[in-house]
Design a protein that fits this description.
By secondary structure, the protein is of the alpha+beta class. The chain is built from 3 helices and 15 strands. The protein folds into 2 domains: about 90 residues, Nucleoside Triphosphate Pyrophosphohydrolase; about 120 residues, Alpha-Beta Complex (Nucleoside Triphosphate Pyrophosphohydrolase). A hairpin with a 2-residue loop joins strand 4 and strand 5. It starts with 12 loop residues before the first strand and ends with a helix.
């Protein structure tokens, strides 16, 4: 699908990726699907299989016959390309709503008809959709991988460690800093693995693998509830097949099978 900026007029109909908070409005008759609806004022995304696709923020005015379901729960229930479009719609809607007013002078902004930007009606300041780059890394030591539980969310699963990139540092420097800050160890052989757009915090997750170089594991208590080194045949409960964290873990298991 080619994504194209623009705003729909009231006469169009298309697939509506209607966002309510962190949820997507879907129909269930007979299977989970994206609803067709009037698209006036919605943000045009492009076409999928010949059908125009739009993103819209809703607050109670749901498309007819639809209901909001948390987007994370729809992974696997929607076709892969539809889910990818939904995650993009989530990020675009958040940007569009958060920048209705100018961050410089406070006056209203307006959408562009030709590119993805909101421009201040008074001072001309522009606001484009922006991503927060974050690194995520699977660290290996003696055939085991480092996994941890997040102290803030206290979710029941273990995952790889991650953190946001600071101004002025490279991705590799961020990997080394985050692991030393959160786990107390140093790294070597930092290698790029892959990336994943992550709309739930408007992030771009950039995955790496690395090897333990030194230090004793000392989890930072404000960040990590518990952490440990896990063998490939003793992996604890980990995230579902949605995130790059799971891809990193599955790759580790495959390589050591």
């Amino acid at each position: 699908m080619v994504f194209t900026p623009g705003v729909s007029d009231s006469r169009q109909r298309g697939l509506i990726f209607a966002i309510e908070g962190q949820s997507l409005c879907v129909t269930r008759d007979p299977v989970i699907a994206i609803p067709m609806a009037d698209t006036g004022g919605a943000l045009y995304l492009g076409e999928l299989d010949g059908l125009p696709c739009f993103a819209r923020r809703v607050e109670g005015d749901l498309p007819e016959g639809s209901e909001p379901l948390p987007l994370r729960q729809l992974f696997g229930a929607l076709a892969e390309e539809q889910f990818a479009i939904a995650t993009r719609a989530l990020g675009i809607i958040a940007w569009d709503h958060d920048h209705r007013f100018c961050g410089r002078c406070g006056h209203p902004t307006r959408r562009s008809e030709t590119e993805r930007v909101r421009t201040c009606s008074t001072c001309g300041h522009t606001a484009y959709p922006r991503l927060s780059p974050a690194v995520i890394v699977l660290v290996e030591k003696d055939g085991c991988c480092l996994l941890a539980r997040n102290a803030r969310t206290k979710m029941p699963f273990f995952s790889t460690l991650a953190g946001f990139v600071e101004v002025g540092e490279t991705l590799e420097q961020c990997v080394a800093r985050e692991i030393e800050e959160e786990a107390g160890i140093t790294l070597s052989d930092i290698q790029y693995f892959g990336s994943q757009p992550w709309p739930f915090t408007n992030s771009l997750m950039i995955g790496f693998t690395a090897r333990w170089a030194g230090g004793e594991l000392r989890p930072e208590p404000t960040e990590i509830l518990e952490a440990g080194w896990f063998a490939p045949d003793a992996i604890p409960v980990v995230p579902p097949k949605l995130s790059i964290a799971r891809e990193l873990i599955d790759d580790f298991v495959r390589r050591h099978s």
